[in-house]
Amino acid sequence: MAIEYTEEHDMFRQSLRKFYEKEVLPYYAEWEKERQIPRSIWKSYGSQGFLCPWLPEKYGGADLGFEYSVIAIEEMSRADVGIPFSLHSNIIVPYIEALGNEEQKERWLPGCASGDILTAIGMTEPDAGSDLAGIKTTAVKDGDDYIINGQKVFITNGWDSDLVIVACKTGNNEKPHRNMSLIVVETGTPGYTKSEPLRKMGRHTEGTVELFFEDCRVPQKNLLGEEGKGFYYLMDKLQQERIVSALGSLLAAEKMFNEGLAYSKERVAFGQKIGSFQANSFKLAEMATEIEIARTFLEDLISDHVAGKKIPAARVSMAKWWISEMANRVAYHSLQLFGGYGYMEEYPISKHYQNVRVETIFAGSTEIMKTIIAKDLGL
To answer: What predicted TM-score, i.e. pTM, was given to this entire model?
Structure first.
């Protein structure tokens, strides 16, 4: 069942649309070339109430439902830009709101909502991506502090972040799932450094970096939640992250399909529109069907999430893996319709093809999603 939008939702959507048209689109091509989003755009986005709109008013939010985050994600896709607003708003800040004590919330959340504090989360390591329990970064108590040593990799928004939530080993329990804790490390802390932004296939404006911790001293008051429960916190919050990821994949698929469909109705080869060839028309029909199936399933999940219902992890995993793989199929076939022009970076389909590839990898790879589903089936 789709979300029923009201006049207030429409006003929020129109405000977002105006923001992108006025403050982002005239400059985005240059930002993408420089692979850097100006800090001012975050503050402008936050000042208009678009960052973390779900936060309680006392922390700088508007106490709105998750459907407003859905609208924000949709409008960014419509604008065809890539700024990690949603990562910050819907994936990282929720950890602080859910797990932080009152002092931590008052210290960090207002800045997160205004755009004065940008966030990242440090989970993946050179030898631990999907195997999250296998992380090697350690945090050892020393007086009132933790001493952190280790390395994180592929950290989106890490370059611009003012604080990062770091998954660390904090104990010697034989069960690694019970050794992990989440500790907030602020930029500028001695012993904490960042690499230059990594050169990636796509998504060039997301400031993805490696993080290094060498005898990094962090006060114990920066511990989020309880020590030793970090793995379970991550598993819980990954549910919303995977819904957000699935939505991003779906919106990308719709965009690429529409581009391919429009081109098929214009491009002439062998004396006829290329969309009239049965091979192409059947492929477009298949893509349209898969996108419709994906949207129906995902809208049902999002409606349940907005309503606060507990969604089985297997269902979220089904959406995440299938829709991300579907989006990559659409990328392949849509680009193929453009022929040689699709391989040219000046055509949007080329950029979309590059950007969508990572959707099957981050937030839990396709293989991990299938493992979760298989376990649910008793296998």
So the answer is: 0.94
